[in-house]
Write a structure and sequence with these properties.
The chain is mainly alpha-helical. Helices cover 61% and strands 5% of the residues. Strands 5-6-7-4-8 form a five-stranded parallel β-sheet, sandwiched between helices. Helix 15 crosses helix 17, helix 38 runs antiparallel to helix 39 and helix 39 runs antiparallel to helix 40. The longest helix is centred in the middle third of the chain and has 21 residues. The protein is globular and about 120 Å long. The C terminus is likely disordered.
Length: 926
């Protein structure tokens, strides 16, 4: 709270505040905060500083009034802290004793307080409530707690009847009558029981009605009608479906969503994790939950579907196996046999017993459908289930009735949203799968399942659907591929599935998995009679993913040759263009800029022969980027402008489906940098913002990373606010890490390192930059190496670390063997001049700086020319007249951006030179 206003904080900032508030007035070290908030993350101090800055901004404080920085140590919360304690409760009146035997409530019920309250309110308003839910979800625990809550309301007249021991419908009425301590003197004791209850305000709790459902419904309805003061609270795995009944569906405990960055504090906000941790601590696992295990425990809770019994049974294994080994054991049938509390009813001693209880109550047709639904992973539609399980069309009313019955019996669940999907909980599916194996139905069913999803993918391709349209089916597609490529599967079907699913994997940004499936299929192509277009699709997808995922880029060329040969033989111009694109992307990443220009030019010729506007647009985009990296900004901008004019939305989206890459947001990012380079910083910022906006609107992970990268590079040279640059790069690093796009994680770390260098922290800067360049190298991206190294070398020289500066520049020289003159050459020459001057080689420094300025002018790189002129002006202090003339002429060609760091520095130097007098100076040659 800030005064009376709630302050909204991100999860990281909140964790930092929590850690500081726990030790008010004390210095909490950076190391302690990082261990708490970012376990096992490389970004360390930079990320911490960024989130502390965001925290200060959110709290609207300047750091002296609430949050102080202690240089070299950490942070201290200096704001006044008010701790409130709960007032002592008045002495409670003696509790009302139950009139009938009532088991005590569970000592540690977790996550059900709101359900208990709602059930009590519903019961008092409606008189008859049935709590419905899956086996083990916690119906008995919740209802027993509600019964105790209602003791005062009913003056102790609460009678619970446990029906699970009653094994025959004919004994049910007698069991209820006996629970009220009445003699059973007739074949039908209900009339006498109703007479006894009439006029008495009593709560009858009927627990576990499902195995006697018809008789339980009949008896409950009669009692409800004949005893108007009787309240009935029942539990069942399906509704009784009688007059007067109101259903309260008891949902599973809520689990955290999938999140790689989840902390223990965040996970413990969810009831499923609270229950798990409560039980592992009770079982003797004293470690509790730590950040590095938070994601694993959350995943276990999701896998167990939030079912309380399953969570308790899994938690009971942790003391023996540990958290990680327990998680790995969850996938097997062994977990179904884990024992629970000895005092629990037999049906709840193990998950297997709980599910046996439900399975034995099904009809033969329901059992068959239930076990065959285990072939689906991640849910299913009714059409899919009907097609796979029965082979019938979507109109099978009997099948629909059976699935509805399984949902009613809490063995399957229905998505409450508009997607109309159904699913079995993971442990239920494991149980059903074991029944499927026992029935000998698995092989044929898996084949029908794989065939169905092959046909579904083929239909999506014919209808040109968005590749993300089948995102909900990705687990079923994965399972179908996995079965197909097994020795007992069908490799031909697997190759077809791989070819048809490629765009889905790419569209969802699952590049590594796409690579793995395509590689498996590629190795089978020569022995598989699949159509050539499918061969081509697999080769294309494999070639694309190799650029992002392969450790050995040597695999690329054979795959590319095969793909291009297939595209030519099929006369497929679009695929030929995609092959050109893949080869071009390889050349530009390595980098071989002259070669990539040649590929782009060949691509343009192919597109023009085909008279295809979209293909021409793609080629112009490729030419724009090729010329940018060759240091030809004017040509690059010209090609980009033509790209914007001729490109088509259909072609752009087709490329995005094939590769997951968006050329429009990439082009805007490149243009942003080009506008800065050619002297329009404000236009650069506008275009950069547009690039980010376009990328985010697509919701594809790769375009967001690409736009963030170019925007980050441009902002680094234009922005003076280092905090803002760092915040943007932390976002990029975390986005890239989440989606496994390593090269963008590396780029973000590199810029964060350069920001550290600006702060004078050279050792930390080198560590971040080296890690960033290593990650980019691992993805075969060396495009930004010269820029990053040059900036770091200049920072080292300015800090007097000349050996470091020279070492960094030598690395650049080794990398520039392939393209000795490229987009960053003027800056490399300028930085070499700075190092030469600093080491006492003034003449060399001046000569290098002149060359840098002259090269930048020839290219039209006005911002590089300004940086060179500024450096030359500083070197030429003994000759201010010529230096002033040079710098003033460059500065005068700018029409905007006068508030940016480079222009401010140049203006200050111009003013200094004007004050230093008129002396003979250097000659500047173009």
């Amino acid at each position: 709270m800030r005064d009376t206003e709630v302050v909204k904080l991100g999860g990281r900032s909140f964790d930092i505040l929590l850690a500081l508030a726990d030790r008010p007035g004390e210095v909490v070290t950076q190391k302690e905060l990082i261990a708490k908030v970012w376990p096992d993350v490389f970004v360390e101090n930079v990320s911490l500083r960024v989130h502390v800055a965001a925290l200060r901004k959110a709290l609207d404080c300047d750091g002296t009034r609430c949050l102080a920085t202690v240089p070299g140590r950490g942070y201290c919360l200096v704001a006044p802290i008010v701790r409130e304690t709960i007032e002592e409760l008045p002495e409670s009146v003696p509790a009302i004793e139950p009139a009938y035997p009532l088991p005590p409530p569970l000592a540690r019920m977790v996550g059900r307080d709101e359900d208990v309250r709602a059930i009590c309110e519903e019961l008092l308003a409606r008189r008859f409530v049935t709590v419905v839910g899956a086996g083990g979800v916690g119906k008995t625990t919740t209802v027993l707690s509600a019964a105790h809550e209602l003791l005062d309301e009913f003056l102790g007249a609460v009678c619970l009847v446990e029906l699970s021991p009653v094994n025959s419908p004919q004994f049910l009425a007698s069991a209820i009558t006996s629970a009220f301590r009445l003699p059973v003197r007739a074949q039908d004791p209900i009339p006498e029981l109703a007479t006894h209850l009439r006029g008495k305000r009593v709560l009858l709790v009927l627990d576990s009605c499902e195995h006697l459902i018809a008789e339980a419904a009949r008896v409950a309805e009669r009692l409800f009608r004949e005893a108007s003061d009787l309240y009935i609270l029942a539990t069942s795995r399906e509704a009784l479906r009688v007059e007067g009944e109101h259903i309260y569906p008891l949902p599973p405990l809520i689990s955290p969503p999938e999140d790689e960055k989840l902390t223990a504090a965040e996970a413990l906000a969810y009831p499923a994790v609270q229950l798990f941790v409560n039980r592992i601590v009770s079982a003797g696992f004293s470690k509790g939950l730590v950040d590095e295990d938070a994601r694993i425990v959350s995943g276990m809770c999701r896998q167990l579907g939030g079912i309380a019994l399953a969570i308790e049974l899994a938690a009971g294994r942790v003391a023996a196996y540990g958290i990680r080994d327990t998680a790995s054991l969850l996938n097997g049938q062994f977990a179904l046999l884990w024992p629970g509390r000895r005092t629990a009813p037999p049906r709840q001693q193990t998950l297997n017993a709980t599910l046996d209880w439900s399975y034995d109550l099904l009809s033969d047709d329901e059992r068959r459908v239930f076990r065959q639904l285990s072939v689906f992973t991640g849910g299913f539609t009714l059409d899919a289930a009907c097609g796979v399980v029965t082979g019938d069309g979507p109109g099978s009313l009997e099948f629909h009735r059976i699935v509805a019955s399984l949902v009613a019996k809490s063995l399957a669940s229905a998505d409450p949203g508009a997607s109309k999907r159904y699913r079995l909980l993971d442990m239920t599916r494991t149980y059903a799968g074991s029944k499927l194996q026992q029935a000998g139905e698995s092989l044929d069913l898996c084949r029908r399942h794989a065939t169905y999803y092959r046909d579904l993918l083929a239909q999506a391709a014919r209808e040109n659907q968005d590749p993300r349209a089948l995102a909900a089916e990705i687990e079923n597609i994965r399972a179908a591929l996995s079965w197909s490529f097994k020795p007992s599967g069908d490799s031909e079907l697997g190759v077809q599935l791989a070819a048809l699913s490629a765009t889905t994997w790419l569209g969802l940004g699952l590049l590594t998995e796409c690579h793995d499936w395509m590689r498996t299929a590629y190795q089978l192509l020569d022995d598989t009679p699949a159509p050539l277009p499918q061969h081509l699709g697999i080769c294309m997808a494999l070639a694309s993913t190799l650029l992002f995922t392969a450790s050995d880029i040597g695999e690329f060329k054979p795959v590319w040759n095969k793909a291009f040969g297939l595209a030519v033989s099929l006369g497929d111009v679009e695929s030929q263009m995609s092959c050109h694109l893949a080869l071009w992307a390889l050349q530009i990443r390595v980098p071989h800029y002259a070669d990539c220009l040649a590929v782009a030019e060949d691509c343009l010729r192919t597109a023009e022969r085909a008279d295809n506007s979209g293909a021409i647009g793609q080629a112009e985009w490729m030419l724009g980027q090729s010329n940018l990296h060759l240091g030809r900004p004017e040509e690059a901008m010209s090609h980009y402008q033509r790209f914007i004019t001729v490109d088509t939305e259909a072609s752009r989206l087709a490329m995005m489906k094939q590769t997951g890459y968006d050329r429009r947001s990439d082009a805007l990012g490149n243009l942003s940098f080009l506008w800065w380079l050619t002297g329009s910083p404000e236009q650069a910022l506008r275009i950069g913002s547009e690039a980010v906006s376009v990328a985010r609107s697509l919701e594809f992970p790769l375009p967001i990373a690409v736009a963030g990268m170019w925007n980050g590079l441009t902002h680094y040279f234009i922005e003076s606010d280092i905090d803002k640059i760092e915040a943007d790069m932390v976002d990029l690093v975390e986005h890239a890490r989440t989606h496994g796009i390593v090269q963008f994680q590396g780029f973000g770390l590199s810029i964060l390192g350069l920001c550290q260098a600006r702060r004078g922290q050279l050792d930390e800067a080198r560590r971040l930059v080296e890690e960033g360049l290593r990650l980019q190298d691992a993805s075969h991206i060396r495009v930004f190496h010269p820029a990053i190294r040059s900036e770091l070398a200049e920072a080292a020289a300015n800090l007097g670390r000349l050996e470091v500066a020279e070492s960094i520049l030598q690395q650049n020289d080794r990398d520039d063997v392939n393209d000795p003159e490229h987009w960053w050459t003027p800056e490399i020459l300028r930085v070499k001049s700075v190092v030469a001057e600093a080491t006492g080689r003034m003449d060399d420094g001046v000569d290098l700086c002149r060359r840098a300025a002259a090269l930048a002018r020839r290219r039209g790189a006005l911002s590089f020319e300004l940086r060179a002129a500024t450096t030359l002006g500083r070197m030429s202090a003994p000759h201010p007249h010529e230096a002033l003339e040079l710098l003033d002429s460059v500065y005068g060609r700018f029409a905007e951006g006068f508030h940016t760091p480079d222009l401010l520095k140049a203006k200050r130097l111009i003013d200094e030179l004007k004050m230093s007098g008129d002396r003979p100076g250097l000659q500047y040659s173009t």
